[in-house]
Amino acid sequence: MNKKIQSALISVFYKEGLETLVQTLHSLGINIYTTGGTQQFIEKLGIPCIAVESVTEYPSILGGRVKTLHPKVFGGILGRRDVDQDIVEMNQYGIPEIDLVIVDLYPFEETLASTNEEKLIIEKIDIGGPSMIRAAAKNYRDVSVLASKDDYQILNDFLLAQDGALTLEQRKQFAAKAFEVVMHYDISISNYFNTQTAVLRYGENPHQQASFTGNLQQIFTQLHGKELSYNNLVDVDAAFQLLSEFKSGNDTFFAIIKHTNVCGAALRDTGIDGWHAALEGDPESAFGGVLVCNTTITKEIAEAIHEIFFEVLIANEFEAEALHILQQKKNRILLKNLQNDFAGKNEKSILNGTLTQEADKGNFSTWAEEGGRDCSELEKSDLAFANILCKHLKSNAIAIVKNRQMIGKGCGQTSRIDALKQAIEKAAQFNFELKGAVLASDAFFPFDDCVQIAHARGITAFIQPGGSIRDKDSIQYCKEKNLAMVITGMRHFKH
Length: 495
Description:
Blueprint: E1 3-4, E2 7-11, H1 18-27, E3 31-34, H2 36-44, E4 50-51, H3 52-56, H4 71-78, H5 84-92, E5 100-103, H6 108-114, H7 118-123, H8 128-138, E6 144-146, H9 152-161, E7 165-166, H10 168-193, E8 197-199, E9 211-213, E10 220-224, H11 230-243, E11 252-258, E12 261-268, H12 271-281, E13 289-293, E14 296-297, H13 299-305, E15 310-315, E16 317-318, H14 320-326, E17 333-337, E18 345-350, E19 353-358, E20 368-369, H15 377-391, E21 398-401, E22 406-410, H16 416-429, E23 438-441, H17 449-456, E24 461-464, H18 471-480, E25 484-487
Parallel strand pairs: 2-3, 2-5, 3-4, 5-6, 13-15, 14-16, 15-17, 23-24, 24-25
Antiparallel strand pairs: 1-7, 8-9, 10-17, 11-12, 11-13, 18-19, 20-25, 21-22, 21-23
Helix pairs in contact: 1-9, 8-10, 12-13, 13-14, 16-17
């Protein structure tokens, strides 16, 4: 059922991108009700609008705390157009019908990230905004609601294409997005008042209670999706630790995390190439994983990754068109990365206490080429990349890289040979050629068997920390077979 919009209430904090939408509303003959700063913005455009105060016959009071909380506003939003008694009462009390509500929320999370002053934080708890958004979303059969500036262009396109009308399905989609916006906002406020302790739905398993204590808002902004679960948070933590290794720069890094392990990763010139290369590394394990990259998610990337099921996507930025595509799955979690540096320590609860250690922020302490030849420039690049990836795999761990793409990995094994065999099998499973590939090990080779097995499959260069009393065995084998071997002097166990 199409619903032609006759009137709109606009009250927003962020004005960016609003101009085009307001001009469209005006061109379609839609009456605009507005408040405060939004009114000034619209009037500067030369577009007529109606102050909410002239409808309520009540001024904005208490420093702006109360301006839209009035029966004439909420009656206009909540009034059911197909209920005769509602229509009678609206006419009786002079309540105008409001067909479209465009409202965003005070920047609570942004304020929380910028100050510890309670007075300023409290004043950024929006009351009228969430109330109007929820009211409009509840009455979506008659009223359309827009709760995010990211959707200005989408609404604008709909109105132009449909002569100022929206379909029932479109109104329902906007309503669903609105409830998600308010839910996320309420969770942020709840976490603040709970001394930043959030009760989670459950722990690793449904029968386990769980909570999170910390400040997620310093790390990311959640743009879409359900509340993060215990397992989501564990995987997101692993993803952010990996992402911190790859600052924004010339190379685009894309990776897929599954159960805290890297299952696909690549460095490429563009984001779309990075995604395809990361997925190619292990498309099976990518199902239900966490995606992470150090660049902007474009429409092209969004269309590509939209085809698979994943839990979480972390990126530096999201284009508006990309968000529109990715937000079509209501539970898909989209996180905007706010920082590249991670905490300086790790903590783990064990026995009757807590283990604390510095975060592993190293890669190698030395670069000693001890094999039968020097590394080529490509091998150096691949070895350094493989060493970082291996660092983010559960021990015992092996990472195989070729042309800046992870093509095989073995992790969480009780034997280094088992980890190597797993990595080789993974590469073979997805038809990767190992000739010319490089291999990283998170710890030393106690014997030369791993080097021999890898070489037999075509691997030509190795990186490992060294430190075994039998390092010379592996080194000697590399010298005899003209293979490259780098000793880093830095182990990367991850239990």
